[in-house]
Amino acid sequence: MSFVRSLFRDRSVAYKITLVSIIPIVVITVLIVIITTGSLMESARQRTRAQTLKLTELTALSMANSSVMYNKYLLDSFIDILGRTSTILSALVVDPSDFRILAHTDHKLDGRIYEAHDLFRDRITITEPEIQVIPTSDRNVEIVIAPIIFHLKVYGYIVVTYSLEDALKQATTLVRRIITIGFLVLVSGVVLALFMGRLISRPMKALALQAEKIGRGDFRHILVYHSQDELGRLGQSFQAMAHDIDSKQRQLSSMNTIADRLYRSLSMTEVIQRAVESMALYSGSPSVALYMLNPVEQHLELRADLGFSDETRLGARVLPLEGSLTGLTIATRDVVTSDDICSDTQIEPGVRDLLLKNGLTSVISLPLIYENESIGAINLIFSVPQQIDLHERKTLLSIGKTIALAIVNARYVERIKAEIEERERIEQELRRSESRYRALFEDSPISLIEADFSLVKKHYDQLTVQGVTDIGAWLIQQPVALHYCMTHSTILEINKATLSLFRCESKAEFFRLVEAFQHKSPPSEPTEELISLVQVDRSFELETVHYPPDQDKVYFSSRLNIVPGYDQTWSRVYLSIMDISRQVIAQQELLTYQEHLEEMVRTRTRELEEAKERAETADQLKSSFLSTMSHELRTPLNSIIGFTGILLQGLAGPLTAEQHKQLGMVQSSSRHLLSLINDVLDLSKIEAGQLELLPGPFHLPEFLEQLVHSVRPLAEKKHLQMTLSVSPEIEQIVSDRRRVEQILLNLFNNAIKFSESGTITVDCRLNEGYILFAVRDPGLGIKKQDQTKIFNPFQQVDTGITRRHEGTGLGLSISQKLVEMLGGRIWVESEWGQGSSFFFTLPRSVSKGEKNETDSSDH
User: 850 in helix, strand or coil?
Assistant: First the structure.
């Protein structure tokens, strides 16, 4: 086999075909020559042998019938006749009794004993002798022995020695001719095999060469073999295969190009946009749109487009699944085309009009398929009809699957990134939580002990399997079992507060203390606290008995909690212990206080009565002080203001410009000081309950008009406008005119003070039986956190070293108190930097107070 493989290994097809053709021809030709030669040689032998046998047999028969055995002359004649045959070398007659030669072709040998009698000694004893052939040492010489029988008696034997050389020479001549013919046939077969090998291998070489070119990506030269035989069909198949490979190569190239662009980004938005751009480059389409299926809303949403106008993008933003070309693509999961959208009922009318408006007339819609499900579609929109063949359809489907896979991968990547970020956030939170827990555990002022009760839980489970239902009652009856649970609970960790609580220097000391407690003898009478401890079931209190007698008694409050997630194993249990000695002592003291409560109440009552007397005395002193300050402060200020006015009017003589300016500043400062004193005294009177209202009827619209007119010059000085709006149904009102005026003037002055430009609006209307006043200004506004402070005494929004506006901060506080005394309420609505609106309400009628105002000249 290795020799055969070596003959064919790395050989050309022509060589193999030639060799396969020549070998049978050579073998057959050689076999034919060998077989024919052997047959001819054997045939010559057989023919010579048959002739000799026949001749010998006839001679023996003739000699028997002629009784030549008794006639030496006749015997010699017969022998001589045999000897003249060309193939017979010698002939003799032998006496059967003593093997003496009776007649010989060489008469010199007559009468001698036949030397080769041993060759046929056994044959003369045959009962029925017959003619026989005896081979000799010479392959071309044979001996024929024929008995001479007469009346069933053998009178002698004819021994004929003949040669086969003449017959073999004739056969050899014929064999030479046959070999020559065979050689010619062999040469002809070899030539024919070479020709057929070349004839057959030529197209195969061409196929191999074309295959190499195809392997290098060269599809320019396609093999053409015009024949209907197998090679012709092979060539046609190869040509079809090459065309298919070329198509698939272009398909793979396009898909690789698109896939390379898509997989460069892991953002789904970028992948979708790149898919649209890649399909535009691949198809040459002027407009491309990518729709994604919304399985919840059951419609298609436009996710990316190229070449759409804003109007088209808005009109084609959402497409239905049923009744649209794209929806049909989603449903069939196949490429759907429309050569003329004008007459295609699958195109929505609104979308059709928008496409035709942009000169687009045909659509190719390919599905985006992932795991045999459509997740969206891409529409290639052209201005001229497009025809696609089967290969192009398959290419578009493959591209759609590639885009779908990229979109799904990007979606998965975004989801995985979100999950990773969430997991990292959770892990960080867990680490921070663990860190905080460790910090809280270690630094907690409460004693915390972390323990492992898993062996206790297993013991409980075994008791439950054995039929124990009330383990607490069972433990009370079994102190040994309770002791077992105590010794099989393990403390894992403690904090510093535990060491401080149990007065231990180190954790080792605390663990030795616990170990000593656990290994005490079983309690003779189990306490409820120990039962609760080993059952991990509730809070309980323990009174320590471990401290030396010279120390105070300490009370503990303990609580056990199983960490969530360890309810089935009890491998993490927290025991919190609080020192409640102070609470216990306080309760004891409280009991003592309760016993002396009546005496304490009487003592406190006496103290309150004394404080009341001191407060009434202070109130009287305050009233006296206010009365004195009313005359002592305001009277000289009024004089200063009056005399300053006389000087400014020139009644005491002319003034220079600088004197007029300085006296004006004195008058302004005096009036400001008088206003401040009036505000302070008014607030004091209101708080002391000495301010009494003097209600009376007055015409509200006329009153408001006069009041606005009086402050309008001050507003115009700051380039501010003031407008007034009063509802027609408001006419007369019964209230304290002076206090209403004071409230409004405070609001007007604040509006003017805190505004730089714009219009101040005053509005008055009826609202649910009350009169609603509104003063709106375009000033700097009030922050939310300051809106509740501005009604407090001495509070201003503009405070600190950057303060730009004067005032004591009493105006709004006095206004609030006056509004409430008149039966209404006041509030503010404001946004910082956008102005403020102050509102207050008054009833249409106010009753007269019980006490009259004593000093009518206060204001």
Answer: coil
